[in-house]
Design brief:
D-Maltodextrin-Binding Protein, domain 2, 10 strands, single chain
């Protein structure tokens, strides 16, 4: 009885490798974990279009929004690791939510296969043009003089925008009150109307309002000033050690055959390195950083080490 059992087990061991030889032989889905029309959706469709062309097989985007993207990540984590399901993971889904919500239902370090970093977009502090605040110094002075915490809009709880606001609060010994929204667009509507004190959208989300002059950007969470926003100072140059990017990358179920991961990684890096792609992403406030599969895996692990102390200090670490 032992020998047939071993033979069956051996067949299961070799199935992924054999399947990878003719991959992809049928359509491949990329699960977008966020609402359509946002930065995540754009990156998912950019990836799908390029991969469809290169591999001569349809890569299609399937939207699985809800629960801050957790529903989509659970769908990726529980799919077969055969190369026919990928998902778009963000910094919030890959780092923050698994720490704040232990019941999220997936582990980004062991339950998923990091495949390719696509792009990242930093966070901006913005206030309404109707506000009396014009600089970050004004903002801090207003916050210190206020009898109650200033309110801010962010794309949901456990978002990168919330983490940047909380980090700034730690650095300045200030407390802010979050008003969670389903997306950045809704928070920007309220900050433009001056219903909330400030918002923490990504540069990509705030670009239209900044160009239209309805909001004033006070600071951006990059190492250096962005070429397309030369008048917006960084938190660092203003004396606050705060650098953060809401990054996006492709992931797959755990135990994805390595050769498939390498093939997809190579093509995503080629797609984002094209001048036309870089021009388009830069105009949308996105930053590109090519990584191979091991580098992307290490990047996610390093982000966990970096953000865990912040999450602990603000009392958001899940039990």
């Amino acid at each position: 009885m032992k020998r047939p059992l071993l033979l069956v087990l051996a067949l299961f061991v070799f199935i992924p490798a054999a399947a990878a030889d003719d991959w992809p032989s049928r359509p491949v889905r990329i699960i977008n974990t966020f609402a359509p029309a946002g930065a995540a959706d754009q990156l998912a469709r950019l990836s799908a279009d390029h991969l469809s062309t290169v591999f001569k097989q349809q890569f299609f985007v399937e939207t699985r929004a809800g629960a801050a993207g957790v529903i989509g990540m659970q769908a990726v984590a529980t799919a077969d690791p055969d190369g026919y399901t990928f998902g778009l993971m963000s910094m919030s889904l890959g780092v923050i939510i698994p720490m704040t919500n232990p019941k999220a239902g997936y582990d980004p370090l062991t339950g998923l296969t990091p495949v390719a970093y696509i792009a990242g977009t930093p966070i901006m502090f913005v206030v309404s043009q109707k506000s009396d605040v014009r600089t970050l110094k004004d903002f801090v002075a207003k916050a210190r003089a206020s009898a109650k915490p200033l309110t801010y809009g962010a794309s949901g709880l456990s978002s990168v925008g919330q983490m940047v606001a909380q980090s700034f609060g730690l650095l300045t010994n200030l407390t802010f009150e979050i008003v969670p929204y389903k997306g950045a667009a809704q928070s920007l509507i309220d900050v433009v109307a001056n219903h909330i004190d400030f918002a923490t959208p990504t540069v990509t989300s705030a670009a239209g309002q900044i160009r239209g002059g309805t909001v004033i950007p006070l600071a951006v969470s990059t190492d250096e000033r962005m070429p397309d926003y030369p008048d917006v100072p960084t938190f660092k140059e203003l004396g606050y050690d705060l650098v953060a990017t809401n990054w996006f990358g492709l992931v797959a179920p755990a135990r994805l055959p390595n050769d498939i991961a390498v093939k997809v990684n190579r093509e995503i890096n080629l797609a984002t390195s094209k001048p036309e792609s870089q021009d388009r992403m830069r105009a949308d406030g996105m930053l590109i950083s090519g990584m191979d599969v091991p580098a992307f895996r290490k990047f996610i692990a390093d982000e966990h080490v970096r953000w865990k102390p912040v999450i602990e200090k603000v009392g958001m670490l899940g039990k």
